[in-house]
Specification:
The chain is an alpha+beta fold. It has one domain: Beta Polymerase, domain 2, CATH 3.30.460.10. Helices cover about 40% and strands about 30% of the residues. It contains four helices and six strands; from the N terminus they run αββαβββααβ. It has a six-stranded mixed sheet. Strand 3 and strand 4 form a beta hairpin. Helix 1 crosses helix 2. The protein is globular and about 35 Å long. The N and C termini lie far apart (about 30 Å). The mean pLDDT is about 95.
């Protein structure tokens, strides 16, 4: 993974942790030739308003630290699953039920997964 991607992941994670995102997982696709990006950063929020706050925090943290903006944000209307596209990295912020249903970590079983301990 290149330095820019590593920095982007670091600041996405910081934005998630700042608003108490839970069960953060980084899925590294570097060794998967046909992957749609280099990494997913996945976390869980506990309500639609928490998911909106997590999305805002990630967007603001990355904008302030790296002067980068997502090319797209989808899912805020229902706030069950929000996806943020940063090109090399795609952010997924889920309600627990949606995360369990889509199970992205196991869908991409070939990816190297890093589980980040919750701060509390």
């Amino acid at each position: 993974m290149n330095l820019h991607t590593e920095q982007l992941i670091h600041h996405i994670q910081a934005g998630m942790e700042d608003k108490k995102g839970r069960d953060i997982v980084i899925a590294d696709f570097t060794d998967i030739p046909d992957a749609i990006c280099r990494a997913f950063v996945i976390c869980t929020g506990n309500s639609p308003s928490h998911i909106a706050a997590l999305t805002d925090s990630v967007e603001e943290t990355v904008r302030k630290t790296l002067n980068a903006r997502p090319t797209a944000i989808d899912g805020l209307r229902n706030a069950q699953w929000v996806a943020m596209d940063y090109g090399d990295v795609i952010v997924h912020i889920f309600l627990q039920e949606a995360r369990d249903f889509y199970d992205l970590e196991h869908l991409w079983a070939d990816a190297a997964l890093t589980e980040i301990p919750n701060l509390d």
